[in-house]
Amino acid sequence: MAFDLAAYLERIALKDYVAIPDVEALQVIQRAHRLAIPFENLDVILGRPIRVDGESVFEKLVTGRRGGFCFEHNRLFHDALVAIGFDVRPVLARVRLGQPGVTARTHVLSLVTVDGQDWIADAGFGGSYSPPMPLVDGEEVEAPDGARFRLARDPVFEWVVSRHGPAGSTDGRGEGDVWQDQFSFSLAPVFDADLEMGAHFAATHPASRFTQLRIVSLPLPTGFAALTGREYKRFTKGETVASEITDPRVYRIRLGMLFGIQLSADEVAALGLF
Question: Is residue 4 among the annotated active site residues?
Fold first, then answer.
């Protein structure tokens, strides 16, 4: 199936945006993607299969106007970058945020080459928002919420991305005013079978965060919103508002109004939260 770039750009509120494969477009498109499409695992909890081929991901995230987890987000983002003309390939990562020990490669991001310089770009990390970064040891960038991200060489895992910023602009796993590792990654080649395996583990393994929790998150222009189980948190302009949702009708309204996820009353009931 040919990638419908116009429909994708409309989905991320960039209708009529003329993109060329340069750094500015990479930054603009990743930011717009994350602001428009929520990170969520609700289909996992509802027992629906998670498919990470390009056609299935487009149907769910663009046509169906749903969100997904990293393998879905970054497949869609990858296909959009290819359609624009970027030189891009996936790389696999091990999440360190809130994870003791060595974890499996259950995260994917993109390696993008622009004018001979490699960049990492990630439209699918649910814990916080990091802008694209040049693949340079010691490189730091600042996110719109004020957090800083640092890229460093690692003797074992090749590369590590760390974050220093307000805990409020995370999904709840942030520790605040300290450097905190987010994930490590290597530049080894990645194939479709690797992506399918990673997504399968994330969606089915009993130890996976996505089989245990009901997760929805979305960066805001200057903050972050997260819904983990019944706990709602919104951080914007340095202030955090938090509450527990005790009524399934309120949960459903919150999903629709803030995150753009439309679930029926029966689907919300099937999440087992109330």
Answer: no
Say if CB 32 and CB 81 are below 8 A apart.
no
Closest by CA to 41, choosing from 51, 32, 50, is 50
pLDDT along the chain (274 residues), means of 10: 93 96 98 98 97 97 97 98 98 87 88 98 94 97 94 95 90 85 95 96 94 96 94 89 96 96 97 96
pTM of the model as a whole:
0.95
Q: What is the DSSP letter of 176?
A: S
- Residue 11 sits in a domain whose CATH number is 3.30.2140.20
User: In sequence order, what are the residues at sequence separation of 6 or more whose Cβ sits closer than 8 angstroms to the Cβ of residue 105?
Assistant: 92, 93, 94, 194, 198
Tell me, yes or no, if 78 is annotated catalytic. Answer: no
Q: Domain count for the chain, please give it.
A: 1
Of the candidates 33, 73, 78, 107, the residue annotated as catalytic is 107
